[in-house]
Amino acid sequence: MDPYALKKLNQCRRERRAALLVTDLGDGRDRVVVEGDPVSGLLGEAVEKAFRSDKSATVEVDGRTFFLNVHLPPPRLVMIGAVHISQALAPMARMAGFDVHIIDPRTAFASPERFSGVRLDAEWPEEALARSPLDAYCALAALTHDPKIDDPALMAALEAGCFYVGALGSRKTHAKRVERLTAAGVPSSAIERVHAPIGLAIGAASPPEIAVAVLAEIIEALRSRGLEARKGEAA
After folding, report:
1. 19 phi/psi in degrees, rounded to 5
2. Are 161 and 140 in contact (CB under 8 A)?
3. Cα separation of 102 and 186, whole Å?
4. Is residue 230 assigned to a domain?
5. Using DSSP, how many helices (H) and how many strands (E) does the chain show?
6. What is the pLDDT of residues 94-145, one digit of tens each?
7. I need a labelling partner for 91 at 20 to 30 A (CA). Which of 3, 50, 118, 209 fits?
């Protein structure tokens, strides 16, 4: 590997940015493509697919063979609220490959006994997220039903460009949330990114069922990043 390419990959890893090493198997030359960099034609389509799937692959384009080696940051799931849904969602998300982080200033809920083996911060989201900033490879699920706790976290997630932002609550509850976020100066285009009611509509009722619906929606968002924007451009 070219030393410059290795340096760039390491920089992307430190910055939690997705990158891909494209190697021409014919002449051995390689280059680093950072997610969002323009790559035209069929090779560009293969690069986008590799970023979404997180699967390295060999592709043939115009008579040339390339190996696409994907380097994605580990996806993070930040849950605001050490609640029953979080107790079910945390182990599921860890099995699916997510780094899990639970934040709740209510010490009666945020106890190590209820969340063994999971990063847990019993403090306000503003404080915890200042130390561990959100980014484009983070999903945030606001689960407390308390605007004082949920709203600042939602605003931080929207500002950071998290690939998924969801909030627990009915449509009536979300309508009030929209009013609060709008009053706080959050653009309507950003508010529209909030998945609320949270989770896929599978008729989930119990905390474990809701956790399944939420994790499924998060995975769907992770694997379809960028597709909605391209559909809009094609319309």
Report:
1. -140, 160
2. no
3. 24
4. no
5. 9, 10
6. 999 999 999 999 999 999 999 988 999 999 999 999 999 999 999 999 999 9
7. 50
Report the alpha-carbon distance of residue 126 to residue 190 in Å, rounded.
19
**Domain contains 81:** yes
Residues spanned by the domain of 55: 3-71
In a shared domain, residues 112 and 219:
yes
Domain co-membership, 65 together with 122: no
Number of domains in the chain: 2
- Rounded Cα distance, 106 and 51, in Å: 38
d(CA 72, CA 17): 7
Residue 227 has what pLDDT?
Answer: 57
Q: Is residue 100 part of a domain?
A: yes
Measure the CA–CA gap between 182 and 169, rounded to whole angstroms: 18
pLDDT given at position 19 = 94
Q: Give strand ranges (E) for the chain.
A: 19-24, 30-34, 57-61, 64-71, 76-80, 99-103, 119-121, 138-142, 164-167, 194-195
The reported pLDDT for the residue numbered 233 is: 42
Low-confidence ranges of the chain (pLDDT < 50): 229-235
Predicted confidence at residue 217, as pLDDT, reads 98
Q: How far apart are CA 68 and CA 65, in angstroms?
A: 10
| Tokens linked to 54 | 């997180």
